[in-house]
Amino acid sequence: MRWIVYENEEIIAGTSLRDDGFSSGVFAYGNVAAYVGDDEASVLRNRNALADAVGIPLSRWVYPQITHSDILAEVKRQDQGEGTLSVSLKFQGVDALYTKEKDLVLSVFHADCTPILVYCPKMKIVAAIHAGWPGTIKEIVSKCLDTLIAKENIGVSTLRVYIGPCLCQNHLEIDRPVLDKMKTMSFDVSPFLRYRDPDHADFDMVGCNVHQLVSRGVPMENIVIHPECTYEDPLRFYSYRKEKITGRHVSFIAMKK
Ligand SMILES: [Zn+2]
After folding, report:
1. What integer best gives the mean pLDDT of the chain?
2. Looking at the 3D structure of the chain, how many domains does it have?
């Protein structure tokens, strides 16, 4: 399995790609999500192939069951392997995970949504957040940071953040019902909207999540944004918006031993 690699001396993180693996048809090749209709044996082979490529066995990964919620859960050592061989029961409807454990891989599935991977060198904490447009509107990133500041004393100015491949603004048109949902947000979202007409706009989902990070005190220079859009390269990326029935990537982060 090939993957986009983010790495430094303390963490290993990344995003799986679709261009290699054991799935076929609309799920070709590197699908790692079982709930999309793909053959489960192929999904498991892909998960193991990715774990081998990363160098941490699948038994130390955690795959939550994401649902576009704004829920953050802490992962403890006894949770390792959760969701890797069958759907996670413990992390149902959980779209963000964090841990203080080393050599334990947190992951989130996505195909177009924004994967956000966070490392706090001060408190030795990693987090993985899934923020599609619903999670972005629910301000999941702001909520996660607020919780981690209050509960774990993370140093926001020290955070390292990696934003993986997702939809760019040109490929994320939203309509009136979604625009109406945005009225619940705690900040002015208009800088991240480019209107086509009064009821349709292109949404800068990455920009809106970066705003949530920066507004909590994360320095812009600590945020690495992957430049590719999932809609634009069907050989390397799944795009739910483009293909509807398709596979999922996984973005993940772990502290090294
Ligand atoms: Zn695009």
Report:
1. 97
2. 1
